[in-house]
Amino acid sequence: MTSFLLLEVFFIAFFPANRTEVDDGYWYATDIRDSEYLELFNPRFFLFLPIVKLFYNTFSSLGLTLDAYDFMCVISIVFSGMMLILLYDTLCNYLKFQKKTAFAITVFVTISYEYWRYSVEAEVYVMSMFFILLTLRLFLKYKHTRKFGHVFLLSALAAFTTLLYKPNFIPLFVVFPLLFLYYRKIGHLVIYYSLSAIIIVGGFYIVHVQLSPGESFIGYLFGGTNHPIGNPMASTLVIASNIMSVLWVFSFDEATTFIVNGFPHKVIEEEVFLAQQVGELKYFLLLVLVATIVIFCWFVGNAIRKRKNFSVSRFRMLLVLVLWVLLYGGFLMLMDPTSNEPWLMLQVPIIILFGALLIEPLKRNQYWVIYGFLTLVFINNFLGGMNLLKDIHYDYYYQKSKWLISNATEKDYVISYGPVSFIRYMRYHTDAKVINLEEEQKTAIKLLQNAGKLNGGKVYLSENIFHPPRAILYRSQFDIEQLFNIYKDREYRSELVWGRDNEQFTTYKLIMNN
Description:
Shape: globular
Number of strands: 5
Order of helices and strands: HHHHHHHHHHHHHHHHHHHHHEHEHEHHEE
Radius of gyration: 25 Å
Distance between the termini: 68 Å
Structural class: mainly alpha
Number of helices: 25
Strand content: under 5%
Largest sheet: 5 strands, mixed
């Protein structure tokens, strides 16, 4: 309990005020605050939002005034603490790591950047990791029980974890069940798949019947997948950036140019603005990064020199983790190669393998090297990551929308050209109807064509309509000239209501009469 409380204090101490990196959090928070339960069953994370809304409503019914977004972040903090305690215990008692190695691995997971970051975020990933690890623990415990009752429990837990976040299907139903084959328990394998399928498919079917959507049940069951964007060859950089924060790198013009050229679909205006506060600290962080890479290379060299000490029995025990990384990683390289969030689900097995292959070969008098390595990782991820998120004044979305948050009403409309994360931020913080040109072109055109019939409502225009983000133009097929043609046809004009012309943080109001 003491360790859990210390972890909770650690995460709360670094609770961000700046949510620049958020993609989906405000979408989820808006849904649990404003939507009915039946609207929350997204095929990709089927049970996540309904469960969180149940928690939210339960605490709200006690008379507590809760911010939905912060409430979701607190849930992540709680599950992160439980996950780390469970990880340490599993490493020691089921994967047979030395206690000092298990401790080093647990610390490494805790301070790895994206895990640290998403432990204080309104997202599904940390909760999902807890239940995956709990399922793995039960699979490892199966070695000693091998009873039908244990298989039923595994089936229920694996089905729930898959309904929580659908990509969990890969470790839970492709990798972990290989242990049934290893122990020659074919009957148990059949029960595991059959019962899990009944729970998963049955859950989807019950909701599908209630929704009565236009799509077929099969389409709904297999829905929620991403359209592949990005180069799979960049996946290694994404994995590395999940472990070591690269927020501070945006303070270097050379790095920004490289990212623009290598990831043209990525919106980076937010990160560039955030990195303005780094200053001369960037040179120190560059030195820290170089030192971290040097020590990592030393780890690899040391492991190669001592490769004969690596036992075959240990390899068998870790093979399930290797397959987890290879198969899940292969899936992500096809479906979502350059997004940090999905790769976060591999953070734990990757770092466990790091511990098995690179930490365990260390002699007793060499353990200072891993402590030095972890210190460098912490310095980089604190100074060059979490600490940069403490100041809300460097929150790009806050600066861009703060006038609208204070002035827009439920009668008003806001037209913006993305990115989607900015749209979701405004929808959470304002009562206005926010229209995203990247996804709702017809709605925006219709609004402008009928702007004179709004019964007192105003139409506000975000600056990015006049200066669309590079990445949005790259991936969007919308011709912005369609809007300006309506301008000319209706003799509209724009009036600046916030900021100064030609600046990033400006807001305009549509004027319909000369």
